[in-house]
């Protein structure tokens, strides 16, 4: 039947039933004729129970009319999503070992059920183009969600309710992971409505909003990271609403109407597989991980954080300064296989931190590299400071750390030629040369020395001064020819300043050293040096 009529708009086939809907009588008549003709061509006959041109019909426990879809008064289960939780005080009286006691909770429950049964809501027709909202919530028992659409008058009307219980694995999730699961599960269940269009997810768990929207993927806890990836095929706008506005979804989650389906189990297995991969990548043996779990459970500070992750974080920041640092990072904390993690990093308990610091600095890496190593596997509040202190106080690193050189202080450039001159001696081909080079023009003067004495140097200098003039400053190294008493008198007699470079540091007289290399190279190439 579905195959025969599948291309006719406004026709719905369910088993051997056919529904034809239209917005006006003329269009409706055309569709009815088309359906009848198609059935006749296929050789099919209709039951005499057929009804034509009805404003209202009953179908599969629903009453369908122009206003929308409402419950058949005889079948209200789908349209009373919170009836299970509302009847809990009454059902407690039916238990075998329960004492009969009709008090205020039972009276309140009885009145609420009467109100529910006497005022069944009308589910709105889903309309393409209208703003859609998924209100999703999670409790310790289950997940609940409602698909809403904004009507032309601005009201929010429900299109569909869903709920289910949690699997045993899901019950071990941190609160924030359960909320992320609820949003992902609801989006996938309502995918036929919202796929390809923008919609809004409402959650009463504020820390979840950035994790599902703006936060970088690698900075998200692994389980939530997988939920975020599954949401990427949709186009949600995740917003926070107060718990007072999540009454319907909250009630659905506390009284789930169905068990997890195979698709729900697959969703959980997918997220758990990614979380398990995170544990497998941790640089620790299974024995060491078990030791860490034991220490986490015995550490008062970390134990409290584990409880917050499992039962929910307080709305206000704790008074304990140590817990405040965790509270500020609550969205990144999660428990996987009983291990408290900060994203993909192990939260190290207090009495194991010194051991972990020693492990980080085992190869005597610097501060930056130790911090980078910690970012791959370990975390506790303000971990950067202890790492820096560990490296700074390491005696091995201090002993082998290279001594920082003083920054070079360049000399000022001379204002005119031959005001500052560098001087040096060098040997080549069995001869000793005296070299002078001008700092301003780089002009060299070379003389051969007959003897390696101060007197011989002074004679050559005087001959150069006669030609080029007396410089203001003459720079040399600390050679014996320049350090003698005879040479010290020479600058005084000729009224110039003699300065020496740093001892055992030829680079200090770099101008002369560079000129020596150049002149040596030229002389070695010359045929008549």
UniProtKB/TrEMBL annotation:
<dbReference type="InterPro" id="IPR000477">
    <property type="entry name" value="RT_dom"/>
</dbReference>
<dbReference type="Pfam" id="PF00665">
    <property type="entry name" value="rve"/>
</dbReference>
<dbReference type="InterPro" id="IPR001584">
    <property type="entry name" value="Integrase_cat-core"/>
</dbReference>
<feature type="domain" description="Integrase catalytic">
    <location>
        <begin position="413"/>
        <end position="529"/>
    </location>
</feature>
<dbReference type="Pfam" id="PF17919">
    <property type="entry name" value="RT_RNaseH_2"/>
</dbReference>
<dbReference type="InterPro" id="IPR041577">
    <property type="entry name" value="RT_RNaseH_2"/>
</dbReference>
<dbReference type="GO" id="GO:0003676">
    <property type="term" value="F:nucleic acid binding"/>
</dbReference>
<dbReference type="InterPro" id="IPR043128">
    <property type="entry name" value="Rev_trsase/Diguanyl_cyclase"/>
</dbReference>
<protein>
    <submittedName>
        <fullName>Pol polyprotein</fullName>
    </submittedName>
</protein>
<feature type="domain" description="Reverse transcriptase">
    <location>
        <begin position="1"/>
        <end position="64"/>
    </location>
</feature>
<dbReference type="GO" id="GO:0015074">
    <property type="term" value="P:DNA integration"/>
</dbReference>
<dbReference type="InterPro" id="IPR041588">
    <property type="entry name" value="Integrase_H2C2"/>
</dbReference>
<dbReference type="InterPro" id="IPR050951">
    <property type="entry name" value="Retrovirus_Pol_polyprotein"/>
</dbReference>
<dbReference type="Pfam" id="PF17921">
    <property type="entry name" value="Integrase_H2C2"/>
</dbReference>
<dbReference type="InterPro" id="IPR036397">
    <property type="entry name" value="RNaseH_sf"/>
</dbReference>
<dbReference type="Pfam" id="PF00078">
    <property type="entry name" value="RVT_1"/>
</dbReference>
<dbReference type="InterPro" id="IPR012337">
    <property type="entry name" value="RNaseH-like_sf"/>
</dbReference>
<dbReference type="InterPro" id="IPR043502">
    <property type="entry name" value="DNA/RNA_pol_sf"/>
</dbReference>
